[in-house]
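input
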Amino acid sequence: MSKRHVYDLDLPEWEQWVQEQGQPRYRARQIWEGLYRHLWDRPEAFHPLPKALRAALAEAFTFRRLTPEQEQVSSDGETHKTLFRLPDGPVVETVRMRYLKRRTLCISTQSGCAMGCVFCATGQLGLLRNLTAGEIVEQVIYYARWLRAQGDRVTNIVVMGMGEPFHNYAATMEALDRLNHPRGFNLGARRITISTVGLVPKIRQFAREGRQYNLAVSLHAADDALRQQLIPVARRWPLAELMDTVQDYIRQTHRRVTFEWALIRDVNDTPEQAHKLKRLLRGMLAHVNLIPLNPTPGYEGRASTQRRAEAFCAILREAGIPCTIRLRRGIDIQAGCGQLAGQALGQRPRFLVGKSLRAAGATEERTA
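output
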């Protein structure tokens, strides 16, 4: 019988388990705090527990399902990427980014992805499998230990790594709820951001459930024709339906939504697209995060220049729409999600695209 993963249990499940061992419920809180506050990584470290309970913990549970297989650090030392091997063979990536006041982790919820976004290395792999809640949590704990050894700590989590979080909704929410738990890891909800490509039913569910995590929507185009070329799943939920859903989310939660936009030169970085986006977001409690494209072997598109990015951003700001251009990090170590995994799996991309999309965008603006 295989051992259970310690990070797959929530606190009530730990209470049930310790009672099955003939121990009082408060022992569960000691295990919980040992895992998430003290970051203990082996049964012997749980010294508040009686010896028999530590032995039972060792017999029933494993503390590691992710095996670090490759580590890469950017030339400026600000980005650190780890490729983890899962017990059944697939791989998953996690990235640590250091900013002036933040230590941000970009974590994954799936190995591969089923959404098929044409410019994304993870989408080019296809979906291998969902991660469990514990496997999502373990990525954070791994880097939390590493940062603690440096006298530092995790300050932010972005669920923007491999996979579509809302396609693995239950496990993602379980993982984040454990990381947010006030008696455990205790990372504030406002320091956690979930990025979705726009799965409308799950955005509605997320709004109903009332969690306080930040929501980011990967938009990438302001008309259906181009968006559906870039993001195949957008054919199921056209922009009008997606934007109505986001508006409902804002009305229910009173929370600002971030729209992410991967800037692809001559495709979606034109003044025409900026003006369409301006009209789409006018009056909405929203922020636009422009992200110069990360290069991938399966897509021929190029990143926008700084000048084109600033011109795009200026159009939005003139309309009163907050806009920032994300600082590119880790390009020299292929920190874009899925890039290292594709190499490790020895897989070629499922498709090579780009020329038709550049042609579709080329008529919009030729002079920039």
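quick obs: Residues 347-368 have pLDDT under 50 and may be disordered.
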